[in-house]
């Protein structure tokens, strides 16, 4: 199972979309500062998860959520 997730920084408007097989571990890495891209924006809260059977399905959805349309959709969840 592959999970596409969106997290939002608690201290600013930064939203990050990613894909993982282990959501708990991945969120811990983001919040502990072990990910270069998200380190300056931590801490984070989870705002969206979607599960997929294949990596390709998950990757396609991740790309959609990273697009302008996807970012606008995620803003409605905040």
From TrEMBL:
<keyword id="KW-0378">Hydrolase</keyword>
<dbReference type="GO" id="GO:0004519">
    <property type="term" value="F:endonuclease activity"/>
</dbReference>
<protein>
    <submittedName>
        <fullName>Endonuclease</fullName>
    </submittedName>
</protein>
<feature type="domain" description="GIY-YIG">
    <location>
        <begin position="1"/>
        <end position="75"/>
    </location>
</feature>
<dbReference type="InterPro" id="IPR035901">
    <property type="entry name" value="GIY-YIG_endonuc_sf"/>
</dbReference>
<keyword id="KW-0540">Nuclease</keyword>
<dbReference type="Pfam" id="PF01541">
    <property type="entry name" value="GIY-YIG"/>
</dbReference>
<dbReference type="InterPro" id="IPR000305">
    <property type="entry name" value="GIY-YIG_endonuc"/>
</dbReference>
<dbReference type="InterPro" id="IPR050190">
    <property type="entry name" value="UPF0213_domain"/>
</dbReference>
<keyword id="KW-0255">Endonuclease</keyword>
<comment type="similarity">
    <text>Belongs to the UPF0213 family.</text>
</comment>
């Amino acid at each position: 199972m592959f999970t596409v997730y969106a997290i939002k920084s608690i201290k600013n408007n930064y939203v990050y979309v990613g894909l993982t097989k282990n959501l708990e571990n991945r969120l811990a890495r983001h919040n502990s500062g072990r990910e270069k891209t998200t380190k300056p924006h931590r801490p984070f809260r989870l705002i969206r998860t979607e599960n997929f059977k294949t990596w390709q399905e998950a990757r396609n959805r991740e790309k959609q959520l990273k697009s302008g349309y996807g970012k606008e959709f995620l803003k409605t969840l905040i």
